[in-house]
Amino acid sequence: MRLQELLENTTPGEYVYHASYLPNLTKGLQSVISRGLTPSKEGYAGPGVYFAYDPEGGYYHVSKEDATLFRVKWADLANKFGTYPSHPNGIERDADEIIVPGTVPASMLEVEYFPGEWWDLESALASSRGPVDEAEEPTRIKLNNNEAAKAWIERVYAKYPTTMQNNHVMVWGEGDAQQFAMFELTPSFSKRGAVEVKWFQAYPLRQGVGSRAMKELQTMAREDGIALTLFPWDKGQVSQAKLTKFYKGQGFAPIQKGGKSMAWETIEEAESYQPPTINVGDEVKVGKFKNRRAEVKGFTTDKNNQPVLKTDKGDQQLFKPRITKLMKEEDLTELFDPKTSFPLEWSEWYAGTSEAHAEAYDADGRTIDISFVPTGNDKVIEIVFKRGGSYDLTGKGDAARVMATVVNAISIYLQKYKPPYVAFSAKSTGGRASAYAAMIKRLARGYELLTPEEYPEEVTDFLEFLGSDKPFILARL
After folding, report:
1. pLDDT grade, residue 429 (50/70/90)?
2. Is the dihedral of CA 348, 349, 355, 356 positive or negative?
């Protein structure tokens, strides 16, 4: 076949590709940004910057494992340099490669930072450095006495020894279905004894990988009583505001009011609480300031079946919050009435995927976060909800409206996405588990609660991270 016929059969597509060997990604990107891709002095067809028609062709001169792949729009190259023979000193090409006679500026280039993800070079350079450049932030002081933090970091790195771009990696799946999260840990800059998540990035985006990886770090941190801190990065493809919202959904909260640094802390929660025995004749303190003595004369319950002390100073509620498992069935129906829900705001960041996040605010301005995160090959949706960063929704005021808000968000999500399975968890004892059991009855119109013997293989990932918590797995009817 003649050369002209070969060229007609290998017309460049929208992009052409160039692979380079960059032993240090950060320094290599700095060089390309400052100098561009410069012509090699030698080549089988003479000096030039050699491009390929497709990504695989770009690996002809550099192995795929060692290569950093760049791409540029063919139309931009042709407009800048012209093409041979109409331009005698322009771009030449054969059936395999395209030879550009001059320097290709960085502004025209994109780099494959993650498989299939093309970034502009400035964003990739900033990403390769990580979120904190300590030389540029001298005011951040490292705290001493971090032996426990260092030991925990070694434990995590030992569990996840694989590295990529100088970060450790959690990897799930294989081939095109592979998911991974890169992270770097260091003793905290802002909290003694804590661990700073200095770098954290998941791929692919918006598929629950970040939530899954962060949950794994939190599970390991909880086992050793380690707090986590981080600083939502402000130089990446995802805005700092959206990152902050994501981390809030994972239980992080600002360390200082108005500050950007965030912390997540383990909370030691007892499985149950046994109140002391109260007898007729015992003394209690009542009144606005709880300083008036009153004598217990007897006991009764109110209309919500909650315990009441009868005293010589009148009836006194024993507990400020309502204990859900003491309530009557008809009261529970009212408890989950969506008409009493706080207004919901849905995140648009995850549009087009099955991951979703809803947010509301209670009467005291605390955030109610409801997250829907896919796992198990996207067939299982894990539902996580918190108020003010705490998983305990039932022990504060407005518990009924908070639970109604959660049920309303779940109902909206299930109607829209109809996932095969939904899953959430609670401590195996106490009011939260009872409240969830009652909530399930409210949701049971389209879903049924499964017994452990009925759990499908898809919920394995969810169950792996539960610890002592009680799972609730529902299947769509």
Report:
1. very low
2. negative
Beta strands in 276-336 (DSSP E): 283-286, 292-301, 307-311, 314-317
End-to-end CA distance of the chain: 62
Q: How many other CB atoms sit within 10 Å of the CB of residue 308?
A: 15
CA 134 – CA 217 distance, rounded (Å): 23
pLDDT digits (tens, 9 = 90+) for 340-375: 888 998 875 555 577 888 888 887 777 888 888 887
The secondary structure element, H or E, covering residue 247 is helix 240-249
**Which domains are assigned to the chain?**
3-128 (no CATH), 130-264 (3.40.630.30), 279-317 (no CATH), 332-476 (3.40.630)
pLDDT-derived band at 455 (thresholds 50, 70, 90) equals confident
Q: Per mean pLDDT, which of 138-142, 179-183, 204-208 is the most reliable?
A: 179-183
How far is residue 287 from each of residues 124, 275, 322, 414, measured CA to CA in Å?
A: 63, 21, 20, 46
pLDDT tens column, 307-323: 999 999 999 998 888 77
How are beta strands 380-387 and 421-426 bridged, if at all?
A: parallel
CA distance 442 to 436: 10
**How many Å apart are CA 458 and CA 211, to the nearest integer?**
17
The number of C-alpha atoms within 13 Å of 65 and in the hemisphere containing its C-beta is 0
CA distance 474 to 286: 45
Distance (Å, whole) CA 126 – CA 105: 18
Name the residue type at position 199: W
> What digits encode the pLDDT tens for the residues 53-94?
888 877 666 777 778 899 999 999 999 999 888 888 899 888
Report the C-alpha gap between 202 and 114 in whole angstroms.
Answer: 10
Helices (H), 282-424: 329-335, 399-417
CA distance 258 to 250: 19
Q: Is 77 helix (H, G, I), strand (E, B) or coil?
A: helix
- H helices then E strands: how many in the chain? 11, 25
Distance of CA 38 to the CA centre of its chain: 39
Q: Which of 292, 297, 302 is nearest to 312 (CA)?
A: 297
What is the rounded CA–CA span in Å between residue 15 and residue 69?
Answer: 12
